[in-house]
Amino acid sequence: MLSYAEVDAAMCAPGEFFEIETVDIHGRPTKTWKNAPRNIREVLAQGAGNGGGRDFLVLEEERVSHAEHFRLVARLATVLVRDLGVRKGDRVAIAMRNLPEWSVAFFAATTVGAIAVPLNGFWNGEELAFALGDCEPKVLIADGQRLERLGPHADELAGVTLVGTRLDDRAHRNDLPAGVLPYESLLASVEADALPAADPAPDDPATIFYTSGTTSRPKGVLGTHRNICVNLISLMYALVRSARRRGDELTRRGGPTVLLVPVPLFHATGCHSMLFTQANFGGTLVLMRKWDPERALDLIEAERVTQFSGVPTMVWDLLNSPTLDQRDLSSLMSLGGGGSASPPELVRRIRQRFPDLGASTGYGMTETSSITSSISGADYVEHPDSVGAPVPVCEVRIVEDGKDVPPGEPGEIWIKGPNVVLGYWRRPEETAATFTDGWLHSGDIGRIDEEGFLYIVDRAKDIVIRGGENISSLEVESALYEHPDVLEVAVFGRPHDTLGEEVAAVVRLRPGSQATVDSLRGHAAARLAPFKVPAQIWLTAEPLPRSGTGKILKREIRAAHV
User: Fold this and answer.
1) Taking 50 as the threshold, does the pLDDT of residue 495 lie above it?
2) Beta partners for residue 220, in sequence order
3) Would the pLDDT of 549 be above 60?
4) With contact defined as beta carbons under 8 Å apart, do 369 and 268 qualify?
5) Candidate ranges 140-144, 244-248, 400-404; pick with highest mean pLDDT
6) Dihedral through CA 12, CA 17, CA 18, CA 22, nearest 10?
7) Which of 143, 144, 274, 455 has the greatest CB tally within 10 Å of its CB?
8) Residues 6 or more apart from 49 whose CB is under 8 A from it?
């Protein structure tokens, strides 16, 4: 078995496909993949050539080929530039569930030099309105349900051109904001088979993905064309390296990849590592309206899915399905998870039920454009609590008090590479605090062993990861603090058998308050998306413990209630 260093040296040598070069990125010499696509425009063209008439997007009975997808992107891109006045650097927001139109909107915006801004489809109207006010888009492309949620916030949408698709698909039949332009009519008005002229540079901004982080309001992560294109090659590298490390030959069954997409496209995982890869390689994405393990198994059988990758709780759901043993899953080649910690028991269960199936996981963040490290195959079986080794264009340091720690010792994970984003949209102070000379301070605690395997010891402070969804505890605390009888609040994650974590809170009320747990949950539900509302609330009359500097000791509180 070869070491990571030996494999990297051979695979990244001059003349190899994975050759590494050093380029200047914003004044800093940075290692990157020499053969990475230059921009998203190149990826779209390559995928149309690779895929042609093959299915690219499948949603129930709807099927869109790669060639048809390219034509739709060309038409919408023409509408954006010619009719709606979108120019380089303008923001085009996208708010919808996983639909073929999501992909069309994303590629149409980015290929003409605009910045695509995917919004969380689970957000309520107030949250959507906040993000729109923050990014100030020229255009919002949304489905009927998201536009319905924005109806009461119409006054905050002044100056934004609204484009709507599936307008009859609404939950409550409430009024939509005025002036919505029908998506289908706009595309029907255009005869275009080529993209409008544009040539985005590799380090031009391309995306703003909102992440909860550790602040009370989501912040926009500003990514570039290079960021997302580098991730494409890093994913390829991780796959090949795993085989080369053990001297195995790469083999594939059947034909192109058929990938089931159970996660939202508005996440970096769904967009960067699923949509973008299959757009480039000519594979097929099978979309789901919402997560349901039995429906997922139906789709794996019917569509002959070859790859499944979701958050670990989804893999658990599949493994625990009562119909699993009656299913024909012979098309599956790999089963993976990411987005939250994968317990070692999950690896054991996968190997037990699917001994010939490849299993994998990895580590990354929105700020690293998805992948930083990856692990699969025998390495994953032997190191089930690891997230693998960093890909060679990503430098990783383990830092404590500003200094690198010895192998095996824990510290904060710092990451540098062409995948690290520009910073936070219009938040210079938070950008300066999180990025130092190109190094991203992840906020996660980890360690690296002598072999180069990275382990996550703890997650970023104050984040609750519920079924792969990042929830800021400060945001939930802020909502509870709006209740007039609440004096102190501590919100944290509580272990959950299927979701990984659920939101929990300890609340200190004013003396004499008549507030109840149910009334507090109702108060939170009026201000937050349903998945953020605390599932468990404990009431206390005692002051919450604090440190010498006056900070609430959340770790002590969590330990007492978990």
Assistant:
1) yes
2) 210
3) no
4) yes
5) 140-144
6) 80
7) 274
8) 282
For the chain, how far is it from start to end, CA to CA, in angstroms?
A: 42
SS3 268: helix
**347 pLDDT band (50/70/90 cuts)?**
confident
* DSSP states along 446-481: EEE-TT--EEEEEPSTTEEEETTEEEEHHHHHHHHH
Contact 34, 16 (CB under 8 A): no
217-242 average pLDDT score: 94
pLDDT digits (tens, 9 = 90+) for 264-303: 999 999 999 999 999 999 999 999 988 899 999 999 999 9
Are the beta carbons of 73 and 57 closer than 8 angstroms?
no
Mean pLDDT along residues 105-120: 98
Confidence of residue 339 (pLDDT cuts 50, 70, 90): low
For residue 457, count other CB atoms closer than 10 A to its CB: 13
Cα–Cα nearest to 483, from 516, 457, 461, 450: 516
* SS3 category, 393: coil
Angle between the 100-111 and 66-78 helix axes, to the nearest 10 degrees? 60
pLDDT given for residue 342 in this prediction: 65
- Rounded to 10 degrees, the C-alpha dihedral 160/161/165/167 comes to 70
pLDDT in tens, 197-210: 999 999 999 999 99
Place of tokens 């299913």: 327
Classify 503 as helix, strand or coil: strand
The closest of 367, 317, 352 to 337, measured between CA atoms, is 317
Tokens representing 281 are 């390689």
Q: Which CATH number fits domain 463-561: 3.40.50.2000, 3.40.50.300, 3.30.1360.70, 3.30.300.30?
A: 3.30.300.30
pLDDT given at position 214:
45
Residue keyed to tokens 């703003």: 208
- The 3-class SS string of 218-257 reads CEEEEEEHHHHHHHHHHHHHHHHHHHHHCCCCCCCCCCCC
Q: How far apart (Å, rounded) are the C-alpha atoms in residues 369 and 389?
A: 17
| DSSP label at residue 98 | S
Q: How far apart (Å, rounded) are the C-alpha atoms in residues 139 and 157?
A: 10
Q: Which two tokens stand for residue 526?
A: 């009026």
Q: For residue 488, with 0-12 CB atoms within 10 Å meaning exposed, 13-18 middle and 19 or more buried, which class applies?
A: middle
Q: Where are the alpha helices (DSSP H) in 246-359?
A: 268, 276-281, 293-303, 312-319, 344-353
For 385, half-sphere exposure in the C-beta direction (CA atoms, 13 angstrom radius) is 8
Give CA–CA dist 431/433, Å, rounded: 5
Q: How far apart are CA 178 and CA 167, in angstroms?
A: 13
Quote the CA–CA distance of 112 and 194 in Å, as a whole number. 12
The DSSP symbol for 153 reads: G
- Helices 517-525 and 473-481, interaxial angle, to 10°? 110
What mean pLDDT value characterizes the chain? 91
Distance between CA atoms of 535 and 35, rounded to whole angstroms?
48
Percent of the chain topping pLDDT 70: 95
For the ranges 60-69, 429-438, 541-550, 551-560, which has the lowest average pLDDT?
Answer: 541-550
